[in-house]
Amino acid sequence: MANKMLYGGDYNPEQWDEEVWEEDMRMFRLAGIDCVTLNVFSWAALQPDEVTYRFERLDKIMELVRKNNLKVVMATSTAAHPAWMAKKYPEVLRTEFNGIRRKFGSRHNSCPNSPVYQKYSAALARKLAERYGTCDNIVAWHISNEYGGECYCENCEKAFRVWLKEKYGTMEALNKAWNTSFWGHTFYDWDEIVVPNLQSEHFAQDRTTFQGISLDYRRFNSDSMLRNYLGEYEAVKAVTPHIPVTTNLMGFYKPLDYQKWARYMDLVSWDNYPNPTDPPALVAMRHDLMRGLKQGAPFMLMEQTPSVTNWQPYNLLKRPGEMRLISYQAVAHGADTVMFFQMRRSIGACEKFHGAVIDHVGTEHTRVFREVSRLGAELEQLGGVTLNARTPSRVAMLVDWDNWWALEYSAGPSCDLKYLDELANYYTALYDKNISVDIISTEDSLEGYQVVIAPVLYMTKPGTDEKIRRFVSAGGTFVTTFLSGLVDENDLVFTGGYPGKLRDILGIWVEETDALPAYMKNRFSWNGKEYESGVICDIMHMEHAKALASYEKDFYEGTPVLSRNELGEGRAYYVATRSGGDFYADFLEMVLEEQNIKPVFQPRAGVEITLRRKNGNDFLFFLNHNAQEEKLTAENPGTDLLTGKQYLAGDDIILPGKGVMIFKENLS
Ligand code: GLA
Ligand code: ZN
Predict the structure, then answer these.
(1) Is the dihedral of CA 143, 148, 152, 158 positive or negative?
(2) Top mutation candidate among 146, 301, 323 for ligand 1, by most atoms within 8 Å of CB
(3) Where does the chain hold its CATH 2.60.40.1180 domain(s)?
(4) Which stretches does DSSP call E strand in 334-443?
(5) Which residues line ligand 1 (CB under 6 A)?
(6) pTM of the model
(7) How confident is the model over 412-424, as pLDDT tens digits?
(8) Topology (CATH) of 395-594
(9) Interval 345-388: pLDDT, tens
(10) What gap in Å lies between CA 556 and CA 540, rounded to an integer?
């Protein structure tokens, strides 16, 4: 793709007069920008009516960027349809969750099941490929933009029935899967099925009376958009099979099953917009999810703001040094590009207050531009040394979108139970210990891992239990929590005792589940320390497992809260409650020690340290999230790639506040 990390971002020259373009080129050179994402929202300009296409302006832009040696990520412009299309074919408009059909406006506004949208989005993608496919500076196709949202229109309803027919074949199978004998919902004809929204099964976005249909609608909606993506994917691939294709993802974005999507993406890219209050561990977890989508392959950081967003209630500026730190954090977790939204700040509409490399003042004399330029120079100097480096991990965390949807659609046991919170609890404890974690799907292989953690693995899909059983028997450590193993892929409970198919692996039987409101807590002690218990308390019996700790209060006082089961060469832990950070830290310390898994570097609070490896070279990324300087001690000799400074083992490593170091270890 390139011999250094691509550096640049969304560039919208179509919003500006041509005199400005040359000035942009001068500024890009100053800042070390070498890549622009073009054509993200230009459909209306490219296709003024149903039969006319106009590429002259884009031709000029392409000529300009080519002359200036810029690489191009070429978007297909289909994330916002033209107004004429909405007027002529109202079917392209979405219908909201409440049943209201939208009028023209906004973006990400097309019904994924509109034949008109499907036809014209693929047609535009194909025309772009035909026109620009020979430009050798195009490094990737960027299909649409941040696919998302949902639609509940009549076309979607019809397509949903077709999707269901394909999935279930017969009404009997569907009735069984949805358990429709509950509340007299038996269906006799596919046409009786309507979309599950506020007009039918739902009483709020995340509250449904029929989990089966709502779960399938989520799958269907994700698949529908995936089909849109594939329509364009195939269109560009037919013309330019050699150009990799991506679409920009959004981390843990609930509506779309990215693990399924990634199978159809040549490379993963994503947009990183943390809230100012997000701890660095959460941002790291999102990067690791993105890296895990394609079995550890590096990803593109497609967008981030150089300074400020416009869409949060309070849009805090990134403090001096923060943009650089956050950029390297992405690289530390597997990004091979550093890109921004956007290059020049718009003068009108809702993003006029969104940060950009070139601000409204229009000159290079801004703090943000100076910081962008400094990073540009650094990336230039760094070259391609870390490109395509991998992240070796002995620990995996299982994440599953169906599990997420099904768990959070369930009425009960607690409205405080959120899948991402439980993932974050375990992830953060590992992050704090400088342990690399691969975030993988239940479809992925567990080979090569020593510890697999599956917080709230509520749904056990066919084959998952057997995979875990084999993993443990062969010597692995499996950790899971309360409310795991309960249901099958249709969200139907396995009868015969929780945790269903995981029961023999864990060696326990869970009889009841208590959901504590925030004002109620239980406690337990383990290895001489006291820990908190709350939110969920599973009440369980030991079958083959050994109890390691017990509840200290309530009618289940003295019953186990933490258990270990030996199975074959390995073991499986069940954590029956939500505890606090101190527990996760101590518990995982033991789990890691048992498997002899070492941190990539001795931990220091507030200093994130990750490892990427390439051709036998180890690159340690030191990221000081603290405002103050930190002093560490080199464990091996090595070189800081950003300054060229050499270190011997035992030397002081001084990291300034918010500072970064990429330390290439000399291991002989
Ligand atoms: C998203 C979009 C961009 C832009 C930014 C603003 O990531 O893809 O078009 O709107 O948000 O933060
Ligand atoms: Zn629709």
Answers:
(1) positive
(2) 146
(3) 607-665
(4) 335-341, 395-398, 437-440
(5) 145-146, 271, 273, 303, 305, 309, 341, 351, 354
(6) 0.98
(7) 999 999 999 999 9
(8) Rossmann fold (3.40.50)
(9) 999 999 999 999 999 999 999 999 999 999 999 999 999 999 99
(10) 9
